[in-house]
Batch of 3 targets.
Target 1
Amino acid sequence: MKFSYAMLPDYPLAESLESIRLADQLGFHACYAADETWHKDLWLLFAAAAGRTDRIRLGPSVSPVTLREPTLIAQALATLDELSGGRAEGVLSSGNFGLLAQYRIDWARTRPLSRVKEALHVMRTFLDEGAITHEGEFFSYDGLFTFARPVQDRLPLKLGAMRGPKSFEAAGELSDGCHHALSYTREAYDYAVRHIRAGAERAGKDWRSLDIGAWVVFATGPDSAVAKEAARSMVGIYASSMPEEQLRRNGVDPAELKPVVDAIAAGDLARGIELTTPEIADRLSVAGTPEECREKIERDIAPSGVNHMICAITDRALVQAFTGRDLPEAADVDTQLRLIAERVMPGFGCD
């Protein structure tokens, strides 16, 4: 099992760079960030981080092909790969539906899966060959070329998926893996892995060779209650992007969560947090002491075949930035990175 740090690049950049450097020193596999307008630019951040780290891999999880042209994502990845000495990788999706709505894009009319599949083909070709001529439904090029060339023989490209089953199967069949966000139950991961495996086998690939990542809301610390309260502060914000079928696979009735989603959509984050019960927060996060977090991963996630934990760490600064709440006893990002490395990762062969 690999462990990675998923950051929201909303901290002072000097702090983010130090956290990435610490994750590198502690043996984390990768640092990912969301490629979204809401946050600071991950490409500039990771370009700076490349020169301050030695082993950790860097890239977007996810980058939206509806907003960012795929050849430009490929160009940025190849450039980051050269800067980092071959440590770049990318995860693609159609985009965060809430963000698309703010751009006045109706995601349902974009044919999201078809667009992502074509974008993946475009990027794979552009990265591998340095040039592309393509006449597609969404993207077309005549002899486009680039001098941005990756160091790796095959720079990994993966898909982000939440709904399924077709998106999971496409990830298994066409890409180097799948990052599945915001699931926490054995049922949800069995479902995802079953369809990732079906897609891989259709392409004649060993599904176990793929990167199958669990992108989870994560908060830990010496005080279980404090860590769970930090997670509760953010669960509703994240859960509002979960499709109804995914909520059900995670043991949550969509009707139960609707008041939370409605409050957040109306901009009343305080009311959304108030309506997020500890029971819902516990179902939709990995939170508590390091031992409690390890137990949940061992019980509900790892047995499905997931081989990569991607921890979207929630701390005092993030909660305060998003919600205005102050949780002074919550462990900061660097403390949580150390706790994961020292008390969670060794239980999964990461000694």
Target 2
Amino acid sequence: MTAVRNTPAPGPAPAVFRDRAEAEAYVASVCFKHGPPRLLGVELEFTVHHADDPARPLDARTLASALGKHAPPTLVPDSPQRPLPSGTPLTVEPGGQVEISTPPRESLTDLLTVVAEDVTHLRELLEPAGLRLGQRGADPFRPPRRMLRVPRYAAMERAFAPLGPEGITMMCSTAGLQVCLDFGHAEDLPKRWAAVHALGPVLNALFANSPGVNGRRTDWASARMRTLYATDPVRTRPAAVCADPARAWARRVLDTPVIAIRRPGPDWAPPHPLTFADWVAGALDRPATRDDLDYHLTLQFPPVRPRGYLEVRYLDTPPDGRWLPPVVLMAALFSTPDTVDGVLAATETAAGRWLAAARYGLRDPVLARAARDVVDLGCAALCHTDLTDEQTGAIAAELHRTIDDKTGEDETGGGRS
């Protein structure tokens, strides 16, 4: 989850929505922005463990001491939250996962350099405290336990609890690699939206790295995706792929229940069940504002989240040092309109196989075939990046090695769903 503002915006009172149509138009305008595809961003989450015993619970004081001046206010209320030397802020998730959100860059080379520096600096912060970064997209050792005692996460936990244990597990025991891409020109937006969703099952299977969480679902390739999928379907399932994704997303956001309302005190739970559309229609004792809707948008967790750009959220945090291939592959696959067309063709048979990907990974033969086509396509498009020939050769070799390793895990495995 990305850092969010937990207090209303300062300054004049934010605008009030007159009706649902105005609120939907606002969502479409802020979530779907178009223009030349220039920027790339990376966000990396890690679970944090004691080096001598990864199953030992992590306490807030130890983590806060290790992060020092870089700790966020959610962990240390009076912290200055100094960025890393690169300018990247650190944030902490509800269970103590640490997140690096490197500012976007126009150059892929620059982005990869900064991310590598950020990860190294984070390791160096944790090491003196006897802490290390996790190597999975889900914590295989510890039960979920909420470290951050802030109203946002209390409200989320309360909303998800009636649906089962997946919500608290998603909040406290999972970690992902997020790649952020521009939408591109207006005429290209529907295709790029469709392609990034069609890629989801294929890349989730290719880079699955969470075989179990807290000892559960150890036979799942991506227990993290299984957890996310079941947390709260109305806000965690994939968005609609259609001719007008902005309108469909806006309608979905307005129809999604409100689970947190910022106000003084520790209790941000709504006084009664309501959707944001209900709030706009007068269901609460104060009107819904743009600031309220901005916050409601941060409480949507689909595999691809529109935030004025494409926030791709379906990748597990990879093993140590293995984050580079998926980032480069994503950049290459969206480097030209022709490559995007190739993505749609290569993933046609695999689109929508989210649970098969999470359950079987590349043991699903449909996903395995699509993954090989996608990797071939992406490797051919590496020439459109600013990486050196040596770098692209190494990335291509690593991608093909990943497919070979994962398709060879179980010769009898297959797509059973």
Target 3
Amino acid sequence: MSHRVRSAARRIDAATPSERDRAVDALRALAIAGVVLGHWLVTALVADGGRLRTASPLQDMPWLAPISWVFQTLAVFFLVGGHVATKGYVSARARGMSYRRWLRARLTRLFKPVAAVLVLWTITAAGLLATGTGVDTVHALLKLALSPLWFLLVFAGLTAATPLLVRLNPLWPLAVVLHVDLVRFGLGGPSWLGWVNVAAGWLVPYTLGAAWTRGELERRRAGWILLVGGAVATAVLVAWAGYPASMVGVPGTPVSNLNPPTLAAVTFGLAQCGLALLLRASLRRAMRRPTAWAVVALVNLSAMTVFLWHQTALMATTATGLLAGRLPGLHTVPDGLGWVAARLVWLPVFALALFVCWAAFRVHEQSGAYEQGGGGPRRSRVVRAHRPSHGPSHRAAPRRARRV
């Protein structure tokens, strides 16, 4: 088994184009892993009588806020997304590809896995209501299951606007976020104004990705400026301006840093982007190891599948666990360290449930996988190399992959 794993890793390594920047894929994989683990750690479904309700350990244990600093990694995902999209758009235009064809290829990869999630949860919700499950419980489950879709809608909007964003300075959307928060919190403006930051806030890391494509962030100095400047600004906003310390929403709090994004969330994202840029060289060295690269490559091939189904994996485990009674860390109120310890034990079970979802639904994403930075209908060589070999020996596989 060990030999087969190493052989498969070598095939994937050999099938990867030499010009591919593996650090980009590593950063995307880390961002996805952060989001998944973060949700599994701070999202609880409490069994309360005959219904399930959502809760968060950050509500009763606010000193756990640093967990959100580690696992709220959406800014890195938008950084990588902006870099890949702008690089792909420039490359597509150089090859004479139309904007419509380029956008269709990008959005197909993004939204193709969504249909399976919507179908399954439509059937599930109808079945639960038909069997007498309370509307509150069904609403809580649907909200968790479909919450990843807001991210896809924002990301799709920014992707569609890529031709307009190729040269946009990140300071412009940052200024919009600053002024929106000044009006909301400083001048008592309407709360709905904060929704402007849904676009402006995520535009900041996305346009930083465009600046990366333009070669403006290659020096380590740029990474240090973003890391230190973003961290200091966030600390000032939390300590003296009254922004929440948690970088994710906490039930019962009047202000969420994430829904909609606040200035603190954006400055924190700048620090994350700076750290990501500083890690590029180390990640490129780490990705030279075939096994490490194979793991990252396979995560990237199923990034949307993992993202869309990780909450379903959590809920499936929770629902199944109810058959054994009210289990600690799964159905109990997240109000102490005992819950935290029990939740850590459940993480491998969530991962196993997610693996089942991945095995069942990955085909909807991998059938549309494309080369990094491309955008045309070129099937990824890594997809082909990942498929089991039934022909000649493994030794010949790397040479075949290079000829594709």
